[in-house]
Every structure is written in C-alpha cells, then in structure tokens.
C-alpha cells in the first residue's frame, strides 16, 4: 500500500461529491422559487395599488414613460404609491397630475449657450 486511494475509493468520493452538489442545487432552487413567488406577489400588489389610484390616462402615460425611461417610471410609481399609502391622494390621480409628478422627478435639463467670437 503506497497510500494512494484505489479506483473504487475515488469513485465513491466522486459519487458523494455529486450527491452533495445535487442537494445544494435543489436547496437553492427551492429558495429561488420562494423569492420568485414573493417578488411576483409584491409586483401584483403594486400593480393593484396603481390601478386603484390612477386613471386610465395616467396609467397610459406612465406606461409610455416606462418604455422610454424605465428608471424615471419606477421613481414615479414609487412616488404615487407613497402618496397613496400616506393618504394624501383624494380620488384618483389623473393624467395632468401624473405629468406634474413626472416633471418633478425629471432632472432639470441644462441649457448650453455657445457663443462664437
């Protein structure tokens, strides 16, 4: 015996390692599924709140902004949800109010005046 493992021992070690890796992968998949389900539920609640507090025109405007500027649309959604949760929304937010919210959230465009001499 030279101290080196035999082929059978190596194969057994490989099998054990493969089983451990499979168990880890299955454990991670279960966690991912739970996270995905929680994310979908939160997304559904967010959409329901937006439907409740936005008129059709405001929703269309928000969707149009989301197509071009997703970050700004996300901020506007968060703003609307915060207003709704704090109780500062009477009735529904219409398209004009949504324009105001979007305008407040958009960064001021900087004007450049170039003078030629």
UniProtKB/TrEMBL annotation:
TM ranges: none
GO molecular function: DNA binding
Alphabetical UniProt keywords: DNA-binding
UniProt-listed Pfam families: dsDNA_bind (PF01984)
Ranges of Low complexity composition bias in the record: 33-43
Region ranges (Disordered): 1-59
Cellular component aspect of the GO annotation: cytosol
Listed Acidic residues bias regions: 1-10
Comp. bias intervals (Basic and acidic residues): 11-22
Record NCBIfam families: PRK04239.1 (NF003268)
PANTHER family given in the database record: PROGRAMMED CELL DEATH PROTEIN 5
Homology family: Belongs to the PDCD5 family.
Name of protein: DNA-binding protein HARCEL1_11495
